[in-house]
Amino acid sequence: MFGELFKEENSFDNTTNNSTTTSIDGNPIDEPPKPRGPLKLVGFKNQGSTCYLNALLQTLFLTPEFRDGILQLTSDELGYSMDADSDPSNQRKIPYQLQLIFARLLLLNQNTCSTEGLTESFGWRNDEELQQHDVQELSRIFLDAIEASLVGTSSETLIQNLFKGKIVNQIVCDKCNRISERDEDFLDLTVSVTNNMKLLENSFSNTFKHAETMSGKNQYFCEQCNQLVDAKKRAKLKTLPPILTLSLLRFNYHKETFSRYKETSPFAFPFHLDMTPYVNCRSINSCGHYSLYSVIVHSGSAHRGHYQAHIRDVNKLGYSDIELTNEEIFPDFSKFIQTSETVPVIKNDIMNKKISDPINPEVILARIVAKHESMRLDELGQALLKATGSSWSKVYRKQYGTMAKFLRSNCETFNLDVATRTVSLCKSAHEKFLSDIALKCAENVEDIDKHSADASLLPNNSEYEDLTNSELGNAMGCCKLVNPNSCCCYEICSEEKPGTGMHWFNFNDENIKTISVNEIPKEFSGRKCAYMLFYRRNDLSSSFEWFEKIPDFIKDMMNNENIHLMEWRTKYDLAVNRLDLHIYTEEILIMSNGLIKCVELDGYLMSFYQHQQVSELLSEIQYNLDRMIKKPKRKKLQLTKKTTKDIKISPLEMTNLNILKILPHGGIHLYESLPVGREIALKEAGIKNNSSLFLWNGKSVLNQTIQIGIEYEAISVKLICHYDRNSRCYLSFKASQSECLLLVRSYASKLLNTSSNEIVFQRKIKGNESHNEDADDCIEVIDNDISSIVYGYEENFTAFCKGCQLQEVQRNSELDETGDFKNALSDKCHNKTVHVQLEIINYDNEILQESIYELDIDEKMSIEALKSFVLCKLNLQEIINIEECRFSLHSKQSVLCLYDSITVSSLPFTNDDIFLLERGKAPTNEQVLIFLKPPNELKCIELLLSKSSKISEAFERILKELNLNGDEWHLRKCNRYGDLTYLLDDNNKTITEAKISNGDIIALAPGKLAEKGKMRLCIWIYPKCLTLPELYNKNIITSLFKSVDLDQSSRPSEAPSILGHVELKREDTLYDLQRKIKAIQTDKKMPDKYCIRIIDKGLLTKALPQGDNNTVTLKRLKIQPSTQLGIQPSTMEIGKEDVIIKVVFHIPNTRHYTSPVEYVCSRTTANLHGNIAKCIGFEDNELILAKRTNDAMIWSMIEPDQSSNLNAKKKVQKKGRKTTGKKKNIKENSVQLKDSDTVAAKIVSEELKYTDSSIDLQDFFTDEDILLKQKLKASNNQRSSSNAKMKDNNINQEKSPNHSIQAKESQLKIHVGNFSTLQQAEE
Q: What kind and span of H or E run contains 857?
């Protein structure tokens, strides 16, 4: 109606979301809602701009008659029967969601409540909750929707009886006095707010007392006079509802400026409202006196704003610490009205009554004493002050004297013991007082609402005589949380306080606070002012028995939600106190450029709690060490003569835990150690969440001594030593802060073979802090004063002899952007840069052995000339004989021993390849140097072979070299990782004919080669298979779920073993295969009945045909020479179209499964539910099946067979009626199975035993699946986060900061089903 007129002001502030997110095992867990606060009332979450809905809902909730009418609806009336055949179209969603909200506000132990379920029941699907609307419009539409939803229920007339009234519109003819009347229902009365209407009474008088004259062009046509006549038009209230709603029209449209504006001028309204003068006296049939109980306030302008509500707690559901004085119980708003000549004071008998007029003190004192039987005189004075808000001396002393004197003068009522100063009631006057007390109260407290009276002063109130103790608590008390272990959500505190139902609260979405009734007159005017008023008729009685009116199914639902909240809070508390620690070991470390780097950056994640001891942490890590050691990466074969030390980890020696950090250069460093020998908690030890810890022996890592502490943090140093313009040496190493420059000078002196005093050292400084990031790097010449040097984590140094030209060196010592060394190519077109590493020099330091020399040479130079050039350039010709060394070209994939006669230009090498000068004799042109891989070893042996020698000769030489027998071995080529590739089976071929070239790797593989034209198949024998019909039944499965060692319950104890080998042609049949297998000579006993299955990746998969199908050839069965077969004892009958699958059963309330068992079934999933259920003794509708796709970590649901349902539908179809469209195929959406597929089964009856389980029935994911998915999701989010931020920045830059984007106006709608037809059908 008003479009974006009521757009939320500062909506981003009103949508408060205080929840934080932590995680358990990588699963995020949000912060649970907080328990109820001391006020015991619950607020509503703002969904974006739903403050108008929140204010109205709080008003309706604190309207006892409306709340009780909603709560008393049964599940059958709402259409939410537990019957599985219930029709969703019969569900009354709006009343049901209201019932849930009211029950949560009463019983749920949380401080906020969501309205998402209610807005979804409205049919809001297009972000309607993000658009604010007029609360007056919502009130009418919402009440109409509720009324339409309650048709045919016990609360069908709830809205009509509570909120609807009638206005009679009259037109009186001035000529014949004929009265024409028309009745009109209303849910709320609109009140005009203008500068001329500053009082509610003035607006009512103008509307319902004054008549409008219809004359001139606006004359009325009287049917009795049969002509146009002058007439009087007026409106009268015919009937008034118990809940009177007034809408103040504060928003108007300016016709001259064509703009909206909000009327903020003063408009006063009373607390007590007398509607009798405005009601048609002939039709009035109820009380016309009302009391204010809710004020919805709008703060803001005509274009944006926010709603909140001031509501009186009629039923005393909340707790307020505001003391109820006479001013709170009997408020007078007249004193807040600014009087002037044009603004008369509100005249109301109740409001003008002097509240300070003292009530007869005999009545008040008698009530207090009767309640306590007897009390001391000073206690009586305090009780009087608490009850009336005024002391005896202030109100009564001037008229009656002291309290003791007054008590003595009324000796017929009171007994005063002067000695003990105690007061009690006389026995003779006790009964008389109780019988006359009501009359005395009526005489002294005239026209005061009985609900505003001090009920706590009545010792025997007849209203509560028939109530039990708990019911009396419901009537007189406030909510409080009971024992958390109890099933009950809340009980009612029996604490009594005066002024029942007179406390006021401010509801501002999630925030609730107590206010004084005197805060309401502040909303008469201004930017924040009253917008809707709700009055209760004074003759309405407040019902306190709300708990009994809640249906049992709602109570059970709230009880379960409270239990879930308790578990959620417990789980979150554990997560907050939990420490996720990243544990690192030597197994995931590598050495790179002198730095120790981590292969697995996240380490191994383990969870502990802050209160656990450090010793427990160490024990747990040592216990899980086998799981922490990752599967080692594939290692390359060692083709060089370098010896590498194997690193062996001894878990018993790993007793030290140190804080680990990954430095900016990628290397790790260790800091303070944990006190593993002391009993100290992790929190006290200073361990924080997501800390990284390193488990080691405390001495060395990767055979290197480690010094811990910040002063020993490693610096990544890159040193370039220049010999001349075309020759230089690169060296990368690590150093500490104190020894950095000392090592640079020492290494440069050894590499340049001169004294450090004859060397010039330069340091490259990346960027200057005073410049921007694009500033050029500068060069700093290092002198003898090194005390002022501050090192970073990465340092680049250049060294050259003093005779070298500085400009030439600087041009050749540049580094690329990534920090790697850049080639400095000569301008000559025939020159080429090679990288040489010297293995022939035995340096005293292993670090110098890794230095790389970069030389600019002529590409037409031969390898023999290159050797002479390197030895001469480095002054090594007198130390090393040129005939005793050779060059080999090392790349990532191969090692090639070079012939001396070839040229550099003929070699296919890149800038990353290394020319290694090593000791040894280079092969001649008639020889090849191969690398021989012995069985089960990584280190290869060099072997020089003649190109004209045959494979058989090479094979005999290899066997002789390794001292092996040749019956069960053969030769194969392999790659750098030792994977077998090409078979060398032709012994008559030469090395050249077999395409064996220089640098190839030949492996000696186990196994005898088959004859030419035959296949040699390896046959394995497996233990007896565990099948589903033989292993499981209903009792075993039920007991298995309760077992602790589920994984060991059905796991085979025997491992497969090799039975032997058979040689067959591809044209041989399955019968020939079976005959050959039986002829194998072995000491293993062959089973009587067995099946032959293909082994793929170590697992038994497809079974070969049985029975009469033994004439099929091996070629047709796709048996290859590399195929391995398994013999498995089995009595299973496997058909031609059958497959063997693995069946696992889900363990309820976990993410684990039983060990797999095998089951023979068809490739399609038709009747799979029924067949598995029949095997284990369950009904087919009790099973939920899913198939796992291992590669994609996806579980595909297997739907049950629907053929029976389709047949039933065909019978119901009328004869002669033809079906149109394509015929539906039942197998169209079925899941296809293949051998060794895993099918998981959930037994519904067992799953439903755990009602508090968070795992859905269709959720088959394991913990490993979830963890892998989260890692993939995290990596994807990390890649796209930068792009998203850039897009957001671009959008924010395009928006003007002072420009408010106008949202498209939308009409407020609530979708309600048609329940009138349902009522007619039931009738």
A: strand 852-858
pLDDT band of residue 578 (cuts 50, 70, 90) is confident
636: its two tokens: 């390359």
Contacts of 1131 (CB under 8 A, 6+ apart): 1089
Handedness of CA 105, 111, 117, 118 (dihedral sign): positive
Q: Where are the alpha helices (DSSP H) in 197-264?
A: 200-208
d(CA 1182, CA 1169) in angstroms, rounded, equals 9
How far CA 338 is from CA of 265, 331, 346, in Å, comes to 12, 17, 11
Whole-number pLDDT of residue 635: 67
Is pLDDT of 459 > 50? Answer: no
Beta-strand relationship, 43-44 and 112-113? parallel
Instruction: Round to whole Å and give the CA distance between 978 and 638.
Output: 10
689 alpha carbon, distance to own chain's centre:
18
Q: What angle do CA 683, 689, 693 make, to 5 degrees?
A: 85
Q: Which two tokens stand for residue 877?
A: 């010709």
| Euclidean distance between CA atoms 1094 and 1190, whole angstroms | 19
CA distance 899 to 894: 16
Q: Compute the half-sphere exposure of residue 550: CA atoms within 13 Å on the CB side of its CA.
A: 23
Q: Is the pTM of this model over 0.70?
A: no
Task: Answer for the pair 450, 5: CB distance below 8 angstroms, yes or no.
Answer: no
Integer Cα distance of 1127 and 1106 in angstroms: 13
* Contact of 1230 with 1201, CB cutoff 8 Å: no
Helix (H) or strand (E) holding 785: none
d(CA 338, CA 344): 9
User: CA 237, 239, 241: angle at the middle one, nearest 5?
Assistant: 115
What is the distance between the alpha carbons of residues 921 and 942, in angstroms, rounded to a whole number? 11
How far is 487 from 501, CA to CA, in rounded Å? 29
pLDDT on residue 1274: 65
Distance between CA atoms of 503 and 1309, rounded to whole angstroms?
35
What is the C-alpha to C-alpha distance for residues 1097 and 176, in angstroms, rounded to an integer? 107
Q: What is the CB-side half-sphere exposure of residue 339 using CA atoms within 13 A?
A: 7
Given a contact cutoff of 8 angstroms between Cβ atoms, the answer to whether 896 and 942 are in contact is: no
